[in-house]
């Protein structure tokens, strides 16, 4: 018996043993897809006429057909072992972002953030639907499963809007602009973020998560899309003017004053100021920045490493590297890593 236990221990510590153990665990679970049962994040009802994947388990099959690539795909959010079985493929399949790739097979005519989408919106005079999220966001996956994988909703989106999907970890600058608008207009924010823009990229309506269908007095995503489409056709001037008033108010509140003829600060000065801000908000015990909840921000860690590279002989440079490395170590100890491929 001890000999058998030892052999089993050795077997489980091998790569093949790990894979087969995982296969047995996954194939032995026969659970239906989870439904959204938690509270939805804020978006006020749109008055009329105007005011505004959880992952599915693979089907049971012999464990010998499951490879390491399948489990890596599952760990990163993928649902299918082969792209040949997808019924829909859009432009996001050519992107590198894990978040965008997760939406590459939605029945939505997605565009990445860029000139191609902007020019299409101007050419066809359509409003833009901008959806912002990131790969580890729970409610982003819920809205994908409930809304963006729905063929009826996908057709409404593709026919009436130019649909743009954005990874906030790739473009935190764009995310910040439109999140400021959403927070100012709805009183809250979060991801997924849903914003409707004019072809000139000016927001006029925004929110966060939407359920697919109406829930009591709360409009569902389909209802919101139909109302915005109607208002864009018959009451467009009011849409654009209300959005412009909000933008003007935000500009006044965020304007940076400068003396006439004053030159912009030098790059090293900007970098030093950025470092000081991160150092001030750094949390020494557990790493990261500011108080909990602390969402991982790759752009901050990449800046600290770049800052260290340019200032290796200074105490500030050493401190920048220490902050980045300690944060990464604490993330790894906390379990934020790929549990299959490490």
TrEMBL record:
Protein name: Spermatogenesis-associated protein 20
Gene3D superfamilies membership: Glutaredoxin
Domain of life: Eukaryota
UniProt domain Spermatogenesis-associated protein 20-like TRX: residue ranges: 89-250
Species of the source: Goodea atripinnis
């Amino acid at each position: 018996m001890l000999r058998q236990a030892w052999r089993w221990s050795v077997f489980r510590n091998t790569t093949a043993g790990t894979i087969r153990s995982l296969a047995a665990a996954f194939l032995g679970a026969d659970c239906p897809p989870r439904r959204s049962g938690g509270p939805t994040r804020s978006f006020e009802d749109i008055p009329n006429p105007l005011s505004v994947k959880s992952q599915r388990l693979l089907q049971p099959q012999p464990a010998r057909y499951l490879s390491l690539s399948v489990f890596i795909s599952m760990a990163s959010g993928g649902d299918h072992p082969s792209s040949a079985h997808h019924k829909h493929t859009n432009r996001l399949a050519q992107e590198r972002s894990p978040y965008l790739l997760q939406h590459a097979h939605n029945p939505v005519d997605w565009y990445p953030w860029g000139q191609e989408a902007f020019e299409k919106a101007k050419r066809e005079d359509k409003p833009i639907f901008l959806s912002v999220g990131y790969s580890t966001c729970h409610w982003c996956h819920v809205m994908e499963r409930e809304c963006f994988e729905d063929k009826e909703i996908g057709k409404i989106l593709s026919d009436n809007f130019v649909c743009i999907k954005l990874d906030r970890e790739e473009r935190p600058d764009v995310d910040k602009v439109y999140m400021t608008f959403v927070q100012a207009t709805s009183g809250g924010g979060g991801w997924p973020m849903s914003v409707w823009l004019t072809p000139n990229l000016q927001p006029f309506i925004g929110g966060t998560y939407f359920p697919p269908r109406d829930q009591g007095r709360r409009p569902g995503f389909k209802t919101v899309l139909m109302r915005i489409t109607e208002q864009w056709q018959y009451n467009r001037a009011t849409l654009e003017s209300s959005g412009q008033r909000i933008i003007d108010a935000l500009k006044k509140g965020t304007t940076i004053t400068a003396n006439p003829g004053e030159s912009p600060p030098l790059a090293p000065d900007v970098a030093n100021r950025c470092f000081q801000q991160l150092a001030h908000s750094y949390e020494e015990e557990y790493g990261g920045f500011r108080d909990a909840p602390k969402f991982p921000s790759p752009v901050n860690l990449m800046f600290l490493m770049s800052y260290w590279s340019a200032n290796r002989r200074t105490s500030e440079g050493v401190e920048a590297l220490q902050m980045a490395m300690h944060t990464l170590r604490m993330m790894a100890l906390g379990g934020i890593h790929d549990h299959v491929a490490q």
